[in-house]
Amino acid sequence: MIDNNLTRLDQRIQRLKKRKEKLYTQIAVAYLKETEKIFGKEFSLELILEMLDHLWTFSSEIQKQEWKKYENKEGGKNLRTFPPSFIRSY
Questions:
Q1: Phi, psi at residue 59, to the nearest 5°?
Q2: CA-to-CA distance for 73 and 2, rounded, in angstroms?
Q3: Ordered per-residue pLDDT tens for the chain, 90 residues
Q4: Contact at 8 Å (CB) between 28 and 88?
Q5: Which of 36, 82, 85, 86 has the fewest beta carbons under 10 Å from its own?
Q6: Torsion of CA 17, 21, 23, 25, to 10 degrees
Q7: Which residues form the domain of 37?
Q8: Are 31 and 83 in contact (CB under 8 A)?
Q9: d(CA 88, CA 47)
Q10: C-beta of residue 45 within 8 angstroms of C-beta of residue 52
Q11: Total domains present in the chain
């Protein structure tokens, strides 16, 4: 009985992890669409990544610490970070 409960719990955890990944992807796509609206015809993923890299490189440590507050935290409180699988899949 205990083994069966543990198995069901593990299965539920796996389903929730998949659901979380799906939600991250949906959020990433929404951000991507907004970025495309802002940049219009000039939009490209390479441009956006280059801009982010440049922005990070030349930002102060105080600003970087502020951005780091938005890193993903357990419980999904801050959904501003994208899973690495999104970047690889684009």
A1: -90, 155
A2: 31
A3: 888 999 999 999 999 999 999 998 999 889 888 889 998 989 898 988 898 899 989 999 998 888 887 765 554 455 445 555 555 554
A4: no
A5: 85
A6: 180
A7: 2-89
A8: no
A9: 16
A10: no
A11: 1
